[in-house]
Each structure stands twice: as C-alpha cells, then as structure tokens.
Amino acid sequence: xxxxxxxxxxxxxxxxxxxxxxxxxxxNYERMQALGYCFMMVxxxxxxxxxxxxxxxxxxxxxxxxxxxxxxxxxxxxTAAMEEERANGAAIDxxxxxxxxxxxxxxxxxxxxxxxxxxxxxxxxxxxxxxxLTGSIAGPLIFFVLFNIVRLAVRWYGxxxxxxxxxxxxxxxxxxxxxxxxxxxxxxGLFVMGALVCKWTNVNIPVVLxxxxxxxxxxxxxxxxxxxxxxxxxxxxxxxxxxxxNLLKKKVSAIWLIFGLFAIGIVGFAFGLLK
Amino acid sequence: MEISxxxxxxxxxxxxxxxxxxxxxxxxxxxxxxxxxxxxxxxxDPTTGxxxxxxxxxxxxxxxxxxAAQSPDSALASVVSTILVIAGHQSIGAGIAVAMxxxxxxQMLTVFARTITVFFQHKADQYAxxxxxxxxxxxxxxxxFIQALRVSIPAVLVAIFIGTSVVQxxxxxxxxxxxxxxQVAGGFIVVVGYAMVINMMQAKYLMPFFFxxxxxxxxxxxxxxxxxxxxxxxxxxxxxxNPKYNSGQVVAGGNASVPADNNLDDDxxx
Lengths: 275, 270
Fold this sequence. Notes:
Strand order of the largest sheet of chain A: 1-2
Structural class of chain A: mainly alpha
Helix content of chain A: 55-70%
Distance between the termini of chain B: 70 Å
Oligomer: heterodimer
Number of strands of chain B: 0
Order of helices and strands of chain A: HHHHHHHHEEHHH
Number of strands of chain A: 2
Strand content of chain A: under 5%
Largest sheet of chain B: none
Low-confidence stretches of chain B: 248-270
Mean pLDDT of chain B: 88
Number of helices of chain B: 13
Shape of chain B: flat
Largest interface: A-B, 122 and 123 residues
Strand content of chain B: under 5%
C-alpha cells in the first residue's frame, strides 16, 4: 500500500498525556480500564486512521485492560509507536498490540503498586498528616503538590520513554533496573512504617502497679505504661500491628479491624484501662 | 450551624471532585488530607478541616485499590465527617468514628457505580463500530460523573439536614464514654493502615528494615524527614552491596542478544 506517511506529533502525545489524567474514570467490573485506555488513545487514532482502519483501532483498544494507573504511561507510549508503524504499513497485527498491552500490565503493576501505593503515597501522606495535625495548611499542600509532581512526571516521561523505545522497553522491564527500584522502595517503605508504628501511635495504659510514698513525702506512681516505656516504647502498637497483619492475611476486612479497635478503645476507656 | 445556599453549592462541587478523585486515583482529591481541608475551607474553619484530614489520613494510609479490589472509600468519609464536625459541632473523635461506617457505605456505592458503568462500556463498543470517537469520550466522561454524584448527593443531603434540630439532638445524644473511648482508640487505630501497607510489600526478607525503623524511632527524636533520608540511604546501600544485582548486570547484557528480541526490533524498524 502506497500510503502517505503519517507521523504522530508531540502535540498528539501531549493530548494523550492530558487524557491520561482521567484514565480510570470509566473503571468497570467487566473490562476494568478498557474504555479508559481507548479514551486515552483517541488523539493517536484520530491522527493515524480513517474509515474502517479507525473502527478497527477503536475496537482494538476497547479490550480488557487493568494495571496500576501511572505505569500505564510507558504502555501508552509503546502502543502509540506501534500504531504509528502500523498506520505506515508495517505488519503489526492486533495480536501483537494487544499482546504487548496484556504482557506488560502484569509486570508493571507489580512495580507500580509497591512503589506508588506502598511507598510514595503512604510516605508523603504520613509526612503531610504529621504537619496537618498541627493545623497547618502546609500539611495538605506538601502531600498534594509533591505527589502530583512525581505522578505527572511519571505520566509524561513514561509516555515519551515508551514511544521512543518502543518494544525495546520489554528488555528494560525484564532487566533488573525496575526490580532494584521496587526493592529499594520496599526497604524505604518498611523502614518508615517501623518508625510510624512506634512514634505516630498513642497508647496509654494508666493502670497503677505501685504507689510509693518517698521519705520526702513525694508519691511515686508506677503504671503499666511506665514499665512498657522502660522496656520498649511502642511495644503495644507493635503487637497490635502484627495482630492486624495476621488478620488481614486471613481475609478479615480492614474496616472490621477498625471497628474492633474502636470497641477495644471504648471498653478500655470505660474500665479505666486505657487513657 | 446553618449552611448557606452558596456553601451547599460549594460542598456539591468539592464532593464531586472528591468522588471523581476516588475512581481516578490521580490527583488524590479523595484523600482525607485534601478533601477535608477543602470542606473545612468552605465551612469557614480550615484549621479544623486540616486536623480532621490529618487524623483520617493516618487511618486511611493503607486504603488502596489493588487490581480489582476496592478499599474502604475515603471520599465520602472525608467530606461527610468534616461537615459533621464543623457544622454539627462534634468532637474530632466523634467525626472519625462516624467516618468509618461512611467509608463502608462509600465503598458499596463505588462498587455499584463501577457495575452500572458496564453499560457505558457496551455503549462505547457500539460507538466504536460507527467510528464515533466523540461518543466514546462521552461514555467515559458520563461514567466519571456517576462517580462524582455517588459522593456529592449524600454529602449535599447531609449538608442540608445538618442544621436541623433532629440531627443536632441525635448527635448530642452520644454518651461521653463513647466519645472518650473513640478518642483513645484514635491513638492506635492507625495500626490497621500501617499493617495494610506492610502486607502490601509482601517482602518478609526485608522486615529487618521495619524493625530497625521501629527501634530508631523508639530511642531517638528524629522526625519523618530524617527517617525518609535514612531509609533512602539504607535502600541504596542494600542494592549496591547485593550480590544478586552485581552478577545480574552480566545476565541482562546477555539477554540483549537473544534472537527473539531482535525480531521484534526489526518489526518496528521496518
């Protein structure tokens, strides 16, 4: 086919980037992010195809898709590059394009979930929340601004990276660069979680163990909490954390655990065991 | 406190933004830190809004949508509990307690919205056959707006009825032992979120770093930024010294010459 060459412009990719901020808008239980993916591909398809080719391209990108939203960016870049080649006559069939999408969404979710949901967001949220508890507007701002800077950078440079590298990206994902990043993020995340469990929790067991009147008339009261603090501050939240981890692994829902802890708080407070 | 007509309109807009944020998970407008702050601003008490946001954010730290699983919904919980605390004159502890059942209700509503969106998915299939891209865009945006309404409708209803004496009497009927207990529980309820984040990593062999963080926090006065920097340093050193990665570079280089990869390259270059 002697067709005129069509090329994607940076503007097309930019429009895809803008649309990618609404990626999950039509998330549904049948095909999850499928419609969202097609929605993001619209500027690309608009540039490359007419008539029946356009219909085929739209159908192609309405297939099942689901991954961590931000890591979709490089997949978008690759599929844009593949569609461009195809529109210019390269022998890339539907299976190749869908194969790339389906083949990448699993491994990339495996990287995106621990990095963004497991580390970046909890860390920035905890930082923001610790400032917010003083009533300062800086808390929400730190969280909102920093998270979105990282997110938008990942989205834009991810698309460009996928577009430039094309199918070569598969090698990068199979290589150990991303594995390093995931493992490093997990270390950072777990380390800070350890600190949070100890410091950003509050348990006080005011049960009096001994009350000694000293020679000078001062009364020294020792409570259970004093003993715990001498041994290991944060011990009670640590035990509670491990209890919750176990119950969560046994598929107890988080909200039941929260209600359970509320009940413990109310009962403990009523009997003077907690303050 | 009566909420004015203008405030109700603003609550509607902000809860729409929060609802859209919850399904998009992009701008994080559904997170308590953002949503509670905005509602606080509307109701004329940003400081209280920010504090509720910070408190709820710590509880919701581990609430995340992984794969097809829906977490408790922070959007509805944040918006409505902030209205209850500021306009309903409740303690922050009571607001947090009310937020939890709201998070469950919000979760059910989003599951419902995500189910009816299947209809628009099919509608989009029809538009695709006609080559109608505007139709596809409309399907996507309408779905997004359903998620906005599933938060904003309940929020506006609460905002309208919060000023009535029935609601006020109901709220003030909560006995002090409950509010006190909830306040106490607020100190350690956050561990559920921490546990969710730790489980999410699924890296038992990295747990020594968790304990190191715990002990350092117990016996030092470092703040979170210091912990973040130490954590990054530990991660870099671990990866630099890990024999797995040092021998891995050779393997990765070897993979580059696998014929299958070259075929794919040729396809693209053709």
